[in-house]
Amino acid sequence: MNYKTIAQDTLNIEAQTLLNAATLIDDVFDKCVELILECKGKLIVTGVGKSGLIGAKIAATFASTGTPSFFLHPTEALHGDLGMIGKDDVVIGISYSGESEELSSILPHIKRFNTPLIGMTKNRNSTLGQFSDIVIEVVVEKEACPINTVPTSSTTLTLALGDALAVCLMRARDFKQSDFASFHPGGALGKKLFIKVSNLMQTKNLPIITKDTKLKEAILTISEGRLGTALIVDENDKLIGLLSDGDVRRALLSENFSLEDNALMYATLDPMSCENENMLASDALVLIEEKKIQLLVVTDENKKIKGVLHIHTLIEKGIS
């Protein structure tokens, strides 16, 4: 059996279903978008079986793109959760046949609340279609399965129509990347747009030495600090140099090397630093990579040390 061909046929059938549906989009979509935009409450999505699973994803997409939304299972609604539907809400009911028993059971109660109902179904004359204020028709020539029964093309189209609604609402609300990130603070985009240097920099137990510190003492500080670096300050506690473990290794090659030497002799003077602790961590990473350094020292305007940010910390926190 050629499974590759079967897979290709499945995708082609579902893709053609979406292309056909695109040609059928009409003013009904405008009415749906306007109704949702005028909604002062929440957008509630409901359905059972495969339609319910698709509905849950649609609700999640709405919620993450600026339209307050949640999924309500019809069975739970019949046992008390109808109270979750308010007079200022809008409901989207999903049923390909339009005759799902569980969904049909709650439709009269939704209308009793005078809550606007958008139906997504293949049959506008079905129970769901008749109760709906607006019907988005889910037109499918055939399911992608060999027995033309298992929800495949129909669920794919329903999901895509939900996405289309969400995208329309995003455009209408001028929903930006920063808005999306605010709903996903733990995601990669949220980290990139919201986590600052101040959130990640180390401020305690910093490996600081004075300009008169001997090299042997500096090496001990580097080891204890676990940053691979010692920060050197002057008599006014201003940053004047950095001594890295790499600097120490290079110092060993000096003919006149001595552990009694002043650490400042082998340090990098006037090192790269940053006065803006509110800089985005992602921007700090770019700076670290551009300057080919591992440690960014954060100071105040007088060059007094406030903290340090190590490249390893950025990587561990998923900053990119």
Task: List the keywords.
single chain; about 325 residues; alpha/beta; Rossmann fold; CBS-domain; 2 domains; five-stranded parallel beta sheet; four-stranded mixed beta sheet; 14 helices; about 45% helix
TL;DR?
The chain has 320 residues and is α/β, with parallel strands linked by helices.
Produce the secondary structure layout.
Layout: H1 3-24, H2 27-38, E1 43-46, H3 49-64, E2 69-72, H4 74-78, E3 90-94, H5 101-112, E4 117-121, H6 127-131, E5 134-137, H7 153-172, H8 177-182, H9 188-194, H10 197-200, E6 208-210, H11 215-225, E7 229-233, E8 239-244, H12 245-251, E9 268-269, E10 273-274, H13 281-291, E11 295-299, E12 305-310, H14 311-316
Parallel strand pairs: 1-2, 1-3, 3-4, 4-5, 6-7, 10-11
Antiparallel strand pairs: 7-8, 8-9, 11-12
GO molecular function: arabinose-5-phosphate isomerase activity; carbohydrate derivative binding; metal ion binding
Domain CBS: 201-259
Domain SIS: 32-175
